[in-house]
Amino acid sequence: MPEVCYIPGETDHRPGASKGYEMGNMQREKGKRGERELARKLREYSYECRRSQQFCGADGDADVIGLPGVHIECKRVEKLNLYDALAQATSDARDEEMPTVMHRKNNHEWLVTMTLEDWIKLFREWDAANSISER
Asked: Is it true that domain 3-133 has CATH number 3.40.1350?
């Protein structure tokens, strides 16, 4: 029986279906592979990241863990609704975590999507660190 994943803004329009959609084995396996691939990529940058092995976001854990203060929603799909993905990350993130979507499609590099407000926070920290070191 397929897993049912509840994602904010996604609705199964079949008669009698509940909110959410059924995830088939192929989709689920591609998602797992994407999470493992992303964790390996982040380890290349010296961050001890790993797949959290969560169940479709039900427990609120990030897909990939190991970046302190960042809630990672990993998407490895050809077509992605960024606003829905970011809404899922925001809904699942804890108060102290920055909701972030890391995503890629076939034959493309990994991209990161977050709100402008969160990006500005990161940039200000980077700018402050670089301004101090230039003195």
From this structure: yes
Phi and psi torsions of 74, nearest 5°: -100, 130
Give the helix ranges, DSSP H, for 14-63: 25-44
What residue spans of the chain are helical by DSSP H? 25-44, 82-92, 116-133
The answer, as to whether pTM is greater than 0.90, is no
pLDDT digits (tens, 9 = 90+) for 69-110: 999 999 999 999 999 999 999 999 999 999 999 999 999 999
Report how far apart, in Å, the C-alpha atoms of 91 and of each of 38, 54, 56, 76, 78 are: 21, 15, 13, 19, 23
